[in-house]
Fold this sequence. Notes:
Layout: H1 21-42, E1 47-50, H2 56-66, E2 70-74, H3 84-103, E3 107-110, H4 113-122, E4 128-130, E5 152-157, H5 166-174, H6 178-181, E6 184-189, H7 195-204, E7 211-215, H8 222-228, E8 231-234, H9 243-250, E9 255-257, H10 263-266, E10 273-275, H11 281-292, H12 295-312, H13 315-330
Helix pairs in contact: 1-2, 2-3, 5-11
Amino acid sequence: MHGFTVRRIPSLRRQVDRSSVIEMLAFMASALFHARRIARQTRAQATITFFGLPCGPIGYLLHKTMGIPYIVSLRGGDVPGYMPASLSLYHRLTSSLSHIVWHSALAVIANSKGLAELAGRFAKDLSIGIIHNGVDTELFHPPVTPRGDQVISIMTVGRLHHQKGNDILLQAFAALAETDRRNCRLVIVGDGPEKSPLKQMAEKLNIAEQVDFRGWVDRSQLPDLYRQANIFAFPSREEGMPNVVLEAMASGLPVVVTPVPGIDELVTPDVTGIVVPQEDYRALSTQLTLLLRDSNLREQMGAAGRRKVETSFSWESSATAYLRIVNKHAD
């Protein structure tokens, strides 16, 4: 795949948008069984474990049994203190394992400054590096022909979970002036436990006919969906660094976001997008109105976002940063 070999291993996974603790444990057990064989076959010189858990222990095993150094790449939910309302018990039960895995690694890397600060509060004696997420700027790109504005599409992408703030987005959309909403659609791409409650909310707010719940779509379809949209909204409550915002910016979309970790590094306020307070649907509605009524502003912000992603958030720059760590160890 793109010049790389992907080796898939047996595991349990019933849903594409999430995995349970049991499913993660099953993956870890399977990976621990297969990892040494794959490492021998490929003559692996280093391992990058994306997510400290459940993948970190796999890198730890290869390091202890085969001497292969590993990097832990933190993504969000694997960091103690992230989403404490729903993950605090999980983090308490796994904190000792995370401590061992992190402290034996060649490097521990977070994908944003905010996540690095959170990780640093858990492991005060470790230096947590930062390598931003990358995006495929060839796959995600603006449309060849200018976007139409007869029917303006506001789009969001992500798991339908309280974390993502889709309830705030529905309220903001309902608060738009009727004249603005008449030629506008809200496209929600994703699936999850809040799908039914969100649909019921759309009914109660009398906007159901203008809200398109697309469900979980194949990743190959996402680039075209971004290119069909006019505005990207993401009122999330907590993130590490949201890939979907990167994809939207690479696709030339103006973004309206909340100040979750990583956003201050991604979005230049009033240049590449607009940052609104969390939980404030009125502020979100006001800024969506601004973009709905000004096509020039949408184009300017979208173009600026595309330039920023090309400069600082390409896959090449992210991969090079990881390789630099490995090469430094080799030297």
